[in-house]
Amino acid sequence: GSYQFSDGLVFSEDNWQYCDGYDRRFESEIKHGLNAPGEEKLTDGPTMQIPPKFYNVGDGFYDPENRIVFDYQMRFLRNANVAEHEWTTKYGRKGWDEFTNGQPIPCNPELSDPRLNDKEWIK
User: Fold this and answer.
1) How many structural domains does the chain have?
2) What confidence tens digit (pLDDT) does each residue in 32-68 have?
3) Could you say which of 24, 29, 58, 123 has the lowest number of CB atoms within 10 Å?
4) Order of strands across the sheet with 76-79?
């Protein structure tokens, strides 16, 4: 059998390329192209305002201090277990910005194509 998601994406166990760590586009961006610069998507649907100190967990907002998930109307939904807490605080979209106060780490100069590492060839 096969599994088709609500947006039309069909799961393929042998050739799964969606959300694989290399291609970070949403399915709608794969089908219809990317938005213009400055209009990038944060989600594959409408972007919700996340309350400060909370995370969006897909079916509501997560309060990591109390380990409670609320629905989008801020009604109690469930208590988060350890796995949900750890995954959400590591990967989840949060309701605040973090600033690094520094310069980005420069890219590794070693490039995949050896010709691009040859300074004479680049000239």
Assistant:
1) 2
2) 888 888 887 777 777 789 999 999 998 999 999 999 9
3) 123
4) 76-79, 68-70, 61-63, 55-56, 93-94
Secondary structure (DSSP) of 46-82: PPPPPPTT-EE-SSSEEETTTTEEE-TTS-EEEE--H
The Cα 64–Cα 12 span in angstroms is 34
Residues 32 and 3 occupy one common structural domain: yes
Question: What are the backbone dihedrals phi and psi of residue 62, each rounded to the nearest 5 degrees, phi first?
Answer: -105, 130
**Would residue 74 count as lying in a domain?**
yes
CA–CA gap between residue 80 and residue 70 (Å, rounded): 10
List the structure tokens of 59.
């079916």
Two tokens at 27? 């399915």
Tokens 């310069």 belong to 103
Q: Is the same domain home to 38 and 55?
A: no
Residue 63 belongs to some domain of the structure: yes
- Is this structure's pTM higher than 0.85? no
| Same domain as 58, residue 79 | yes
Amino acid making up residue 43: T
Cβ atoms < 10 Å from Cβ of 80? 21
